[in-house]
Amino acid sequence: MKAEIIAVGTELLLGQIVNTNAQYLAQQCAAMGIDGYFQTVVGDNEARLKQAISLAKDRAELIIFTGGLGPTLDDLTKDVLAAFLQRELIMHQPSMDRITAFFEARGIAMVESNARQALMIAGSDALLNDTGMAVGNAMTLDGTHYVLLPGPPREMKPMFENYAKDWLRTVMRDEMPLYSTMLKFCGIGESSLEHALLDLIESQQDPTIAPYAKEGEVTIRLSTKAHSQEAANLQMASTVQMIRDRLGLYLYAQEDIGIEQAVLRLLAEKNATLAVAESCTGGLLSDLITSISGSSTSFLGGIICYSNQVKHELLRVPTTMLEGEGAPGAVSAETAQVLAEQLLILMKSDYAISITGVAGPNPSEGKPVGLVYIGVAQKGQPTLVVNVTHSGGRDLIKLKSAKTALYHLWKRLVE
Amino acid sequence: MKAEIIAVGTELLLGQIVNTNAQYLAQQCAAMGIDGYFQTVVGDNEARLKQAISLAKDRAELIIFTGGLGPTLDDLTKDVLAAFLQRELIMHQPSMDRITAFFEARGIAMVESNARQALMIAGSDALLNDTGMAVGNAMTLDGTHYVLLPGPPREMKPMFENYAKDWLRTVMRDEMPLYSTMLKFCGIGESSLEHALLDLIESQQDPTIAPYAKEGEVTIRLSTKAHSQEAANLQMASTVQMIRDRLGLYLYAQEDIGIEQAVLRLLAEKNATLAVAESCTGGLLSDLITSISGSSTSFLGGIICYSNQVKHELLRVPTTMLEGEGAPGAVSAETAQVLAEQLLILMKSDYAISITGVAGPNPSEGKPVGLVYIGVAQKGQPTLVVNVTHSGGRDLIKLKSAKTALYHLWKRLVE
C-alpha cells in the first residue's frame, strides 16, 4: 500500500517547529509494510490544503494527515477534507462528553470553539484521543484511505499506537501486516555489527533484517508478516537466536529502550547503587540516567570533576598524576582508575563509573580529540579501565562516551 | 517570492532521520522575507523526483533542494534536475581539486564516484562546500530560481549561511531583502513577555515583531527591509531600545545564543569560577554548560546530589533538615541555601548554583511536581534563594529549572 503523509500547519512552514510527526509516522508505516513515497507540508490555508489532498489522492492509497484538528479557526483539516469528499461534519458524542466533563471538572466555562474538536466526518470511524480533546478520524472512500491525527506529538502518537494502527491493519486485511521486533546493541559500531551479520543480511528473506544506528547505539529491526505479534515472534525466534549467538555480548535489550534504562533495571534487580564521576562528559551521563523516572532507586549522584582541582581535592587524584613532566595526565587510564575507586569510597555506592577524555574541539594534554578513558569500579572487585576513541563533534563525543561507559557497566552487571 | 523546499532522500521516507533541514531553511527563508507555501519530501527515485520538480515549478518561484549531491548512484538530484532543465553537467574544477587534495593528503586512493561530487549544472553558480565535498548549485532559468544544497546539516548550513544567502539576496534585488535581529530572554514566560509588549506587537509595522518560545527561553525576532544588516540595525534601534526599557531585566543577549553561553561570557570577563549542585536536574545544568566549548575556563565542576545521602555527606545538609516530622525536606529553600553555600566552600569557586525540586512524574515529600528551589551563592555576598513552579513532563521540568537557575546567576552577574 502506498502512503502519503500530509502535515498541516503554518508553524512548520515558518520553521517554528520541526516535523517530527512525519518521522514517527514514516517509521510506523515502514514497520507495518506500508510504502511512503511522498511527504508534504502545507500551511493552514484552505485552497492549498485542498490542492495537497487532490494531489495525494492521485499518487497514494493512504493519506495520513497530522495537525489542524484543534479548536481555532486556523484548524481546518476536517472542514477542508469533508468539503473535498462532499461529506458533512457530525458530532462525536463521546468526545463531546469528554470535553464538557474536562471543563466542568475544572470549573471553567467552555468556549464554544472547543466543540469543534468533537466533530468528525460523516461515515468515518472515530479515533479516540486519550491525551487531548480533538477526536481523530479514519475512513475509506473510493479506494482511498484517510487517517486524520492531531498535531501535538503527545496526542498524535498514542492515537496512532492505540487506535490508528489497528484500523490500518483492518483495511490491510488482504495484505498480511508486518510485525517487528527490535534488538538493541551498545558497545559496537554499525559497520562492525553489519559485518558480523553480513551473510544473514545478504541472504535475508523472512524476517527482514534492518540495522540502523542512533547516536551511541545500534538497533536491528526484524520484521515478518503474520496474523499477530505472537505469531510473528515465533517466526522470528530462530533468527533472533542466531543474532544473539554472534552478538550477545552487545545485545542489551529486545525492546526499544536506551542502555541507561537497561542498566537501571539490572541495578534495581540487584538492589545495588551507582555513582558517577564525569570529566569530559560534563554531566551528560548523569542527565541520561536521571531522565529515567525511578532512577533515584539506584542512582545516588555524582561528581562533575571538570577541573583538575576537583579531581584532586574531591577524588584524591595525586597532583603528580595530573600535572608535570611525564605525568599520565587527567586523560589517562591511571586517572580514570583513581576517579572510579575514590568515588566508590566517597559515595559508598556498590558501583562507580568514571569518564575522562578529550571532547574537543581542541586536543588537550597533547592527546587527540575523541580519546576517552572509562573506569568501572565495583565493591570488592578489580576495577576495569578501558579506552576508546570516538569521532564526531563535541556533543557527539560526549554522548558516545556516556553510552560506552553505560555499556561497560552493563557488561559487568550481566557477567 | 514564493518558495518550496524539496528534501530528497529515502532515509526521510523511512523515518530513519528527521527533516531538520526543512525547519532550518524555513526559518532562514522566513527571516529573509521569502514565503514558504509547501515542503516536499521525496525518495531517491528519478521519476518521483522529476514529478516533484515539475509540480514545484508550477507553484513556486524558488525551489530549494537538500540532499542527493553525494558520490553514490543513489544521489541523483543534480542528474535529474539537469535532465529536467535540459542542461549538461560540467566539472567544477576548484571542487575537484579540493576532493583530489583530500584523498592525497590522507594517502588514500580516490574512488572515481567521488568526482561526481564536483559536478554542476551548466550555467549555474557554484556554492562552495567548506565542510564537505559536494559542491552546491544555484541558477535562474525561465523565471524560476533553483538552489541545490547537500543533505548533511553540517554541510548544508554553512553553505546556506556563507554562499546561498548572498546569492538569494542578489536575485531578490528588486524586493529589498529582510534583515533580522534576535533578542533573547530568559526568566520570563512567552505570555508575560507578549503581554508586556502587547501595544508594540499589535501596532507593529516596521520592524515586524515576532516572539516565539523555545524550551526555557523566549526569542523575539525583529525584521525590517533594508539594503544591508547595518542599515537594518539602524532602522530597528529605537524599537530595540523600547523593548530593552521594558524587559531589560530578562534580555540576556541580542544574538542567537543560549543563556549558558551568556553566563560563561560574563564569568570569563570577571575572571570568576562557577560550581553547581544539582538534585532534580540530575546533571543537565552541567551538561548545558559543558556543551559550550571553552567552558573549562570558568566551570570547575559540580556535585549531582541526587540522594539525600550525598546532600548530607558531601554538602553537609543536616539530616534534621532533610528528614523527619516538620523538617523542611530536600525540596526546600533551606536545603537550596545550604547546598549552594557549602558548595562554594567545597569547590572554592566564586559562584555556586544549587537546584532542588520535584521533576516528576510523582510528587515527592508531599510537594507538587514542578516545584523547584534555586540557590545562587557568591563569595562574600548573601545567598539568593528563589522558588518557581514549572509545568511540563520530567524532561521539560529539568530543562526549565536549569535555564531558570542560569537566569538567576546571569542577573547576579550583571547587577
From TrEMBL, chains A, B:
InterPro entries in alphabetical order: CinA, CinA-like_C, CinA_C, CinA_KH, Competence-induced_CinA, MoaB/Mog-like_dom_sf, MoaB/Mog_dom
Domain annotation MoaB/Mog: ranges: 4-170
Pfam family, one: CinA_KH
Cleavable signal peptide: none
Cross-referenced Gene3D superfamilies: 3.30.70.2860, CinA-like, MoaB/Mog-like domain
PANTHER family linked to this entry: NICOTINAMIDE-NUCLEOTIDE AMIDOHYDROLASE PNCC, NMN AMIDOHYDROLASE-LIKE PROTEIN YFAY
Protein family (similarity comment): Belongs to the CinA family.
UniProt-listed NCBIfam families: cinA_nterm, molyb_syn, PncC_domain, PRK00549.1
Name of the protein this chain belongs to: Putative competence-damage inducible protein
Gene label: cinA
